[in-house]
Every structure is written in structure tokens, then in C-alpha cells.
Amino acid sequence: MRVLVIGSGAREHALLLALSRDPQVTGLVIAPGNAGTGRLAEQRDVDITSGEAVVALARDVAADLVVIGPEVPLVLGVADAVRSAGIVCFGPSKDAARIEGSKAFAKEVMAAAGVRTASSEIIDNPGHLDAALERFGPPGGDPAWVVKDDSLAAGKGVVVTPDRDVARAHAASLLESGHPVLLESFLDGPEVSLFCVVDGATVVPLLPAQDFKRVGDGDTGPNTGGMGAYAPLPWLPDHVYRDVVTRIVEPVAAEMVRRGSPFSGLLYAGLAITANGPAVVEFNCRFGDPETQAVLALLDSPLGQLLYAAGSGTLADFGEVRWRDGAAVTVVLAAENYPGRPRVGDVIIGSEAEGVLHAGTTVRDDGATVSSGGRVLSVVGTGADLAAARSHAYRILESIRLPGSHFRSDIGLLAQESKIEL
Ligand code: GLY
Fold first, then answer.
1. How many other CB atoms sit within 10 Å of the CB of residue 254?
2. How far is the CA of 59 from the centre of ligand 1 (A)?
3. Tens digit of pLDDT for each residue in 272-318?
């Protein structure tokens, strides 16, 4: 089977690596890719937002399966174009991708499916902002305001703060730039990312993971697209994991079928495990970054066959997904000033090492690998347990040089020290 992967981040690099281990995958193509992905796949250029261009490329490379990594093409309907051309695609239709693209749609689906989630309100009129801030957040209620950009913002549009001025300033600046604002109630409790391969009503859950969204150690500083992750979660009881699948993901998948927008692809449940049980923070319509890098490092089943089964409507026959023993940790190496405007164009030393996945990298005319984005590399360590996987990841990081770069030193640390309590 020949597989075309669309995207250019560390998530797509991780997908390629796992696909390359599948004996039935005979050819890999990535578009547009980055400086690291060319070692695993033929690299092509494409406008990832154009269904027509992706279909033309898929035909040109004789792809049997197209895997669409990022949310933007999915929300724009690129998967529909691929399917209409008769090519198997892993990724939801434009209609189903609204679970990520439209917060209002996601809330409607969750309400109909009886799934717990934060209460929320969308503000698009600056005149309504102050009254809405009174209804969400301190004093006397939630410990913090949760202010989100109600358009696709790669995780960076989220501010969680106990400071009203900070909450107001963020909301006002989003409104000024024409973005509606989503105010949400605060869900207290450790967060879980659960990725499920879904084909209509069939749900195949992957290992649970945890993402670290703040830029600094101890969950300090602004939100980012994700600074690291680990899997599995030693502190998450099996019965809670099963509850998430049977009481949250399966009812949502069934509700999407009932509405005539069946989901086919990766349904990502972002959850908080609150004192009253799991509740949904958000749904995404694709693999999450950086959790994918950790989850797929432990996958033993053939990824190409799994994604092909979902894309071709035969997931129910795939059976159980198998996993390697142990743990995986991914740590993101970010450019100076990220999540603000990152410094780019610096030469990276050591990025070819095993366990290093590329995100914001490119090859300069002289052949040097240079930084080209905020999150530059994802370093993945594996080991018999979380402690071993952490030391592996941080050992690899020590061998990498990128001027001005930074990373979190505490990815998975609380879990390793058994300090996460439900
Ligand atoms: N892990 C955050 C995201 O992929 O949106």
C-alpha cells in the first residue's frame, strides 16, 4: 500500500515513522514535510488547503491511502475531495470536522449525546464582554477565567487566568482582530488526551496521554501548541478510561451518525478528570501534537492497516490494537521567544539523532538544517517506565544545539513521582 501523508509537523513525522514499520506499507510520500521527513518518505509540495491539489498529488503518486494530519484542510473539506476521487482517506469530512471547527456544533453534539462538558458562551459583540466576564470566573465561583479564540488557533488562543484584567485584555484583543471569543467555565482536574480511531459508530481507543500546554516548568507562562507529552498515564484508573470510551466517545460517535455527519478518522477527546468524573474540554478532529509522538512510539499494531481500515469502513474487523510495554515521553524543543514570534533561521546541530522528530525545520541552500518555526523538534524517549523514558528523552536533548532554544524540564515528572491525584 502506498500512503500519502499531508502536513509538515512532528505529528506527521511520527505518523511516517509508525507507517514505515507496517510491512504492508510499500511506499510513503509526505507533502509538504520538513527537513526530517525526507529521510522516511518521498517529499512533495502541495497546497494542503486545496482539495483539488491534494487529489492531483494523490493520483500522481498512486496513493492507496491519504492521511490528512492537520485540522485546517479537514475543516475545509479536503478529505471529501479525496474520497470523491475514489481514494481511501483517513480524516473526517468537512461536516464531521465541525466537531473541532465549530465550538457551537461540538457543544450541540455533546448536549444531545448527554456528555459532560464546560458551560460556555460565545461573545462577538465587545459591548457584551464585561457582563459575560461576570458570569464566568472569579469571584466566588471558578478559580479562573477560560478565554478561547473561537476559531482554529492551534492551542495558542487560550488564556486561563485568575486575573480579570488579563482575561479581559485577551478577549478584547481577539474581538478587535475579528475573532469571536469563547468564555468557558473552568474544569478542575488533571487533563487527559484520548485519541480514538473512529469509523461511524465503531470506536477504537488508543493509549491515553497527557499534554503540557504552558510554556514553562510547573505549568507557568502562556499557553502554547504543546511543549511535551507522555503515555500511558499510570495514574488513570482503567475504569475511568473505559468510562471515557463508553460514556463520552461512543455516544458522541453515535450522535454524529444520527445527525448524518458520521465521523471517520481520529477523534481526539481532550478531557479533565474532575471530582465529578471525566468532562470534555474539547474535541479535535485529528491526531494531537505532541501526544501523537508519544502514543505512536508505543504502537505495535500496523498503523497503515489501522488507518486504511478506518478510511475504508472496515474498522470493526480490525480487532484490538496492540501496544509495546513501557512508556514514552516527548519533549518539544522550541525556538527563542516561542510562543511569541519565534526566532528562525538558526542552524540546528544534532537533529538527525534517533528519537528526534522534526516540526519547524527546513533545509537551507547549503544543506544545513535550520529552524523555521516556533516548535522546532520533538524528542521522543522510550523506556520500561516513565522514569526511564524521561531520562532517555532528556539525554537525547542534551546532544542537540539550537541557539536561544528552550524546553520544559518537567514533562511527565509529577506522574513519575506519583503526585497526580484524582
Ligand atoms: N495537543 C494539543 C493539540 O494537538 O491541539
1. 16
2. 30
3. 999 999 999 999 999 999 999 999 999 999 999 999 999 999 999 99
With respect to residue 254, please indicate whether it lies within any of the assigned structural domains.
Answer: yes
Residues 196 and 178 in one domain: no
Q: Answer whether residue 113 is part of any domain.
A: no
pLDDT for the residue numbered 153 = 63
- Amino acid 82: pLDDT: 98
Is the CB–ligand 1 distance for residue 157 below 6 Å?
A: no
Q: Do both 305 and 215 map to the same domain? A: yes
Position 103 in a domain = no
Counted domains in the chain: 4
| One domain for residues 236 and 341 | no
pLDDT of residue 139: 77
Same domain, 210 and 311: yes
pLDDT, tens only, 162-190: 999 999 999 999 999 888 898 999 999 99
Q: What is the pLDDT of residues 346-375, one digit of tens each?
A: 999 999 999 999 999 999 999 999 999 999
Domain that holds residue 174: 120-184
pLDDT in tens, 127-145: 999 999 999 888 777 789 9
At which of 59, 94, 129 does a domain end? 94
Pocket test for ligand 1, best of 193, 295, 378 (most atoms within 8 A of CB): 193
Q: Is the residue at 115 inside a domain?
A: no
CATH number, position 374: 3.90.600.10
pTM, 2 dp: 0.94
Residue to substitute in 195, 291, 293, 330 for testing ligand 1 pocket (most ligand atoms within 8 angstroms of CB): 291
Contact 363, 35 (CB under 8 A): yes
Question: Which residue, among 320, 22, 48, 21, has the nearest Cα to 30 in the 3D structure?
Answer: 48
Q: Decide whether any atom of ligand 1 lies within 6 Å of the 284 Cβ.
A: yes
